[in-house]
UniProtKB/TrEMBL annotation:
GO terms for molecular function: DNA binding. Signal peptide: none annotated. The keyword Transmembrane does not apply. PANTHER family: HTH-TYPE TRANSCRIPTIONAL REGULATOR MJ1563-RELATED. Keywords: DNA-binding, Transcription, Transcription regulation. Residues 193-204 have a biased composition (Basic and acidic residues). The keyword Transferase does not apply. InterPro entries: HTH-GbsR_regulator (IPR052362), MJ1563 (IPR026282), WH-like_DNA-bd_sf (IPR036388), WH_DNA-bd_sf (IPR036390). Residues 189-215 are annotated as: Disordered. Belongs to the GbsR family. This is HTH-type transcriptional regulator.
Length: 215
């Protein structure tokens, strides 16, 4: 659908959709232009060629080509051949379950794995030292905690990815409900701990007052 064939409402909604996806790009682990190209192709019913993408988003050919290639690598955009046309056309992956699974998998590969490798190397360097001071011990504990968190995050991602790929909504809902229960328990425990601390502080205050009045 060309810009001339769109209603004003469609155009306004499309522009808002593309703008918002661009703003959310960092949350998905991709750049703004890459996100906007996906949003444009996702919204449009027909495949688009590079020239149309450039015109719609007001970007250069180099920028368009580079980001379309990246989207293809991520599995979020597919090349489409139209009969009787030599141009390359592109269409977005419109299955949101597939899109979510591919984004999670790509972020694991591009961010979690390299980060884990770097943190492990930092820890190895610290352990090579013959002497250990308080700063080294503190840093080691921080790195070990970070690596434990990454391992937990990675285990969670790998556990939920098959359910997303299979569109298993019941299993995902079960995991979400478990998370909600856990969060409620954590909130209750934090509330009880805060109340205990307040009571302890009140007892300590009263003891100080009694000790002061007895003098």
């Amino acid at each position: 659908m060309s810009a001339n064939e769109r209603t004003r409402e469609y155009q306004n909604a499309l522009e808002l959709f593309i703008t918002y996806w661009g703003e959310m790009a960092s949350e998905w682990g991709i750049n703004k232009t890459m996100s906007q190209i996906y949003a444009l192709l996702f919204a449009e019913p027909e495949p688009m060629d590079t020239d149309t993408i450039m015109k719609e988003l007001n970007i250069s050919r180099g920028n368009a080509n580079m980001n379309v290639r990246n989207l293809i690598q991520w599995g979020l955009v597919h090349k489409v051949n139209l009969a009787g046309n030599r141009k390359d056309f592109f269409s977005a992956e419109k299955d949101l379950w597939t899109t979510a699974a591919r984004i999670i998998a790509e972020r694991q590969k591009r961010e979690i794995y390299p980060l884990k490798k770097t943190l492990t190397r930092c820890l190895d360097i610290l352990q090579e030292g013959k002497e250990e001071d308080s700063k080294t011990e503190h840093f080691k504990n921080r790195l070990e905690g970070f690596l434990s968190f990454l391992a937990l995050f990675n285990d969670f991602s790998e556990a939920i990815l098959p359910y997303i790929s299979e569109k298993n909504t019941e299993q995902i809902k079960g995991i979400v409900e478990m998370a909600k229960v856990y969060n409620m328990q954590q909130a209750q425990e934090q509330q009880l701990e805060q109340e205990r601390r307040q009571k302890a502080a009140e007892v300590a205050r009263r003891k100080r007052e009694l000790a002061g009045s007895s003098k």
